[in-house]
Amino acid sequence: MSDVTPVDAGLFASLDPPRLLGSRCGECATVVFPTAQSCPRCSRAAMAPHALADRGTVWSWTVQGFCPKPPYVPPVDGFVPFPVGYVDLGEVIVEGHLLVDRALLEIGTPVRLALEPVRTADGDEVVTYAFTLDEEAA
Amino acid sequence: MRPEDVYVVGGGMTAFGRHDGTGLDLAEQAVRGALDDAGVSWADVDFAVGGSNVSGKPDSLVSRLGLTGIAFSTVKNGCATGGVAMATAVSALQAGRADLVAVVGFDKHERGAFAADAAAYGLGSWYATTGMMVTTQYFAMKTRRYQHEHGISDRTLARISARAFRNGEAHPLAWRRAPLTEEEVLAAAPVNEPLTQYMFCQPSQGAVALVLARGDRAGDLCDTPVRLAAVTQRTRRFGSFEVFSPWLSHDPWNSPSVDAAAAAFAEAGLSPADVQVAQLQDTDSGSEMIHLAETGLCKHGEQEQLLAEGATDVDGALPVNTDGGCLANGEPVGASGLRQVHEVVRQLQGRAPGRQVPGGPRVGFTHVYGAPGLSACAVLTV
Ligand SMILES: [Zn+2]
Question: How confident is the model over A15-39, as a mean pLDDT?
Answer without folding.
Answer: 96
